[in-house]
Amino acid sequence: MTNALQVQSVSPVATETGETIINISLPINFNTMYSIIKGLASGDNTITVPNHPDSVSIVMFVPDPTEVIAVNLKGSGGDTGTTLSYLAPTIFPLSGQSSFILHAASTHATFQVVFM
């Protein structure tokens, strides 16, 4: 069974000559969805990508908007990563990696990670 997630934005964008409307549509098809609610410790938290025959190719981070805590998606070592929004979900494609690191500025009680 194939599922679909449609992400769309129709937004005015300022340009040098005024304003234009940008219509961005991102259809995502996937077989299975796995969701985990994860408590993040302060510092690096290694998240393992589920090993499933339907394969996982996308991860969506869904923060609890009541917890305004910086969380970065990063690599190991000195990589500082990129800060995820605490106001809206972030969708990120996976390229075969078996794990990734979420770095939390402090303890985060309920951070949802959805694999598709």
Report on the architecture of this protein.
It is a single chain. By secondary structure, this protein is mainly beta. Helices cover 0% and strands 59% of the residues. It has no helices and ten strands. It has strands at residues 3-15, 18-30, 34-40, 43-48, 58-63, 71-74, 82-83, 90-93, 99-104, 108-115. It is globular and about 45 Å long. The two termini are 13 Å apart.
- State the secondary-structure class: mainly beta
The total of beta strands comes to 10
Oligomerization category of the chains in this entry: single chain
Strand content: over 45%
User: Helical content, roughly?
Assistant: under 10%
Q: Helix and strand string, N-terminal first? A: EEEEEEEEEE
Rg calculated over all Cα atoms: 16 Å
Layout of strands and helices, then pairs:
Layout: E1 3-15, E2 18-30, E3 34-40, E4 43-48, E5 58-63, E6 71-74, E7 82-83, E8 90-93, E9 99-104, E10 108-115
Write a short abstract of this structure.
The protein is mainly beta. It has strands at 3-15, 18-30, 34-40, 43-48, 58-63, 71-74, 82-83, 90-93, 99-104, 108-115.
Q: Keywords for this structure?
A:
0% helix; 10 strands; 4-stranded antiparallel beta sheet; 116 residues; mainly beta
